[in-house]
Amino acid sequence: MRVHRVFVPHLAAGERVLTGREAQHLAQVLRVRPGARVRAFDGAGLEADGTVREVTGLRVTLELGAPYAREVEAALRVTLAVALLKGDKLAEVVRRATELGAVGFRPFVSRRCDVRELSANKLARLRRVAQEAAKQSGRSVVPPVAEAAPLAHLSLPAPTLVAHPSAPRTLGETLAALTPPPTALTVLTGPEGGLTEDELAALTERGAHPIRLGARILRAETAPVALTAALLIPEGL
């Protein structure tokens, strides 16, 4: 029998009544019936197995077992600092990078950004996208999406890698030079027009490591996903 994943904050054993988006998805899209198996996750690392007890309109009642920790997160914690992008591109970055295992997103505004702010509605949507991608990919942790900040105000935890086509070292060369091997990285990628030379110089002065992605120049929405994949997929090989 298929097991349906469902987001349930503040997990606890016993009866749980769902309303809103998750209940609507179960009732109208998946069309679950009493007895259907579910696996709830709280977005913070816990899961619980259970069954559907009742479906009444857009109200779904679950019976959940004891929560347990399920460790599926990557050993290397990759946070993406991504410039605001036009259209739906940032949502796609959040979706794909969450599936790959990124642990957080920190949008920022730089000089060449065409988009200058991240509205409350767009931020809420990005957070829903991260939740949906975590559910689809079998993760029990939902990566947080921060409010947008100016690039100059963005904190840069060491080590931070900055993607730029003029960087003297590749990703592999830079990683090989980091000792000891890091357990966490921040990866920063620019907007459609790229980072300016002044911005790159300022980031380097703050301790960031410029890196290039081979001989090709990737789109602003491709670079963060490609870097996440390059860093995290080898763990499964």
From TrEMBL:
Subcellular location: Cytoplasm
Catalytic reaction(s) noted: uridine(1498) in 16S rRNA + S-adenosyl-L-methionine = N(3)-methyluridine(1498) in 16S rRNA + S-adenosyl-L-homocysteine + H(+)
Known EC number: 2.1.1.193
Keyword Transferase carried by entry: yes
Classification of source organism: Bacteria, Thermotogati, Deinococcota, Deinococci, Trueperales
Species annotation: Truepera radiovictrix (strain DSM 17093 / CIP 108686 / LMG 22925 / RQ-24)
Main location: cytoplasm
Keyword Nucleotide-binding: no
Domain Ribosomal RNA small subunit methyltransferase E PUA-like: 18-63
Name of the protein in question: Ribosomal RNA small subunit methyltransferase E
